Amino acid sequence: MEPQEPVPLSRKHPKRPAAGRPRWLFAYGSLMWRPGFTPAERAGARLAGWHRALCVRSEYYRGTKRRPGAILGLLAGGSCRGFALRLPERGYDRLRAYLWQREIEHDGVYLETVRWVTLDDGRRVRALVYIADRHHPQFAGKLPPARAATLVRQGRGATGSNLNYLAQTVAGLAELGLRSAALDAVARRVGL
Q1: Are the beta carbons of 85 and 125 closer than 8 angstroms?
Q2: Structural domains of the chain ordered from first start
Q3: For residue 160, what are the contacts with CB-CB under 8 A and spacing of at least 6?
Q4: pLDDT digit string (tens) for 36-84?
Q5: E strands, 16-141, where?
Q6: pTM of the prediction?
Q7: 97: left (phi over 0), alpha (psi -120 to 50) or beta
Q8: Nearest to 162 by CA among 128, 190, 188, 123
Q9: What is the DSSP letter of 170?
Q10: Nearest CA to 130 among 65, 72, 70, 68?
């Protein structure tokens, strides 16, 4: 079955958190190596129907409006390997508020959804997933390696350099025994 893109909420209304109390979070970018909390469990995982891509111009975390960086989002098609992080019971509401602030409030470039992910041990769990909002002004679509490299080289924002973001993401994938041809192509262009 073809994955359905989440429908972005009207710009006249604030985005809303995903319904329910999902116990897991799917990490495919900086959440793999800097989640900002200690997960109750961490496991390799696969999200079917979506793939990671440098498709968002970062104007806060890894760049500015004048010199944006390039960060990852999920686009429809394929599958994505990452980590599933089980959210701890204690402090759950504070953690959800933290994730909302981190992933939604600053740039607003993601939509919070809940999707099934398959853990490496075969379990299927429902997890929070942050998907690129294709209707957001910072959505760039799948960037060609040369353009992505330009943004990565110039980007520096509230959480540091875009070069560090790319290096840490490539290292997080290596921890899973994975490589991304697209990210490796950009890494080579920027000298990583």
Answers
A1: no
A2: 24-187 (3.10.490.10)
A3: 62
A4: 999 999 999 999 999 999 999 999 999 999 999 999 999 999 999 999 9
A5: 24-27, 41-58, 69-86, 110-119, 124-132
A6: 0.87
A7: alpha
A8: 190
A9: H
A10: 72
